[in-house]
Amino acid sequence: MTDCVTKVELCVSCTDLLDKDVGSNQRLKLDYHFEKVQNLKLGVYDIDNSSSDLGDDDYLGGVELTLGQIVASKSLTRPLQLKKGKPAGKGSITITAEEIKDNRAIELEFEAKNLDKKVVKNNLSPSWKKFTVALQTFCGSDLERPLKVDCSDYDSDGTHDLIGSFTTKVSELMKAAGGSPMLTQYTFLDYVMGGCQINFTVC
C-alpha cells in the first residue's frame, strides 16, 4: 500500500452567478491526506482591480466543505451562499478533483559477479530478491536522473564494509534489460476514487 497522501488538482467552475462581470477560474493544487479532515472554504469574487485586498471586490458567494468530500465524489456541485442559510441567487459551484500522479513503477533485480571476499554466506556472486518501487519515489519520475548504487558487506553492528559502487540511470537500466521494466501501480487514491468502501477503527 502506498502512502495515504497524494497531490490533487481541483478544477472549479460556477454557473448562474449574480449579475457581475465574471472572469475565469483557476485550478488549485493541494496535498490530500486521507486520514485528516481538511476543511475548505471557497469564495467567488468579481475582481475589477489589481489590489490583492478582497475587501473592495464584489463577493458572489461561497461554500464550505472538506477535501475528502470532493475526492470521494470526484465531482461535487453545491449552491453558492452569501452567508450561511442565504443563497447567492441560483448560483452554484462545481469542484472536480483529479489526482496528480505518475503511476509507473520499476521492477528491479540485481546480481553481482566475483565480489571481494566479504560477502555473507560465502557467496561471491549473489542475486538479490526482485523488488518493485514507484518511479516517482525511485528517481522523481526523471529517467535521466543519476543514481548511485552501493554494494556493502552487512555487519550487525552497523559498520558495513563498502565493496564497490556504480552510477546509472533508469534509462540505462531499461536499455540493459532489453526493454521497459515499467509497471503500473495503483495509488491509494485510485481505490478511494474508484468507489472502494473502507471501514477502520482508530484506537
TrEMBL record:
Gene3D superfamilies: C2 domain. InterPro entries: C2_dom, C2_domain_sf, C2B_Copine, Copine. It holds the Pfam family C2. Residues 25-78, 111-175 form the C2 domain. CDD domains: C2A_Copine (cd04048), C2B_Copine (cd04047). GO terms for molecular function: calcium-dependent phospholipid binding. GO terms for cellular component: plasma membrane. One of its GO terms (biological process) is cellular response to calcium ion. This is C2 domain-containing protein. It comes from Dissostichus mawsoni (Antarctic cod).
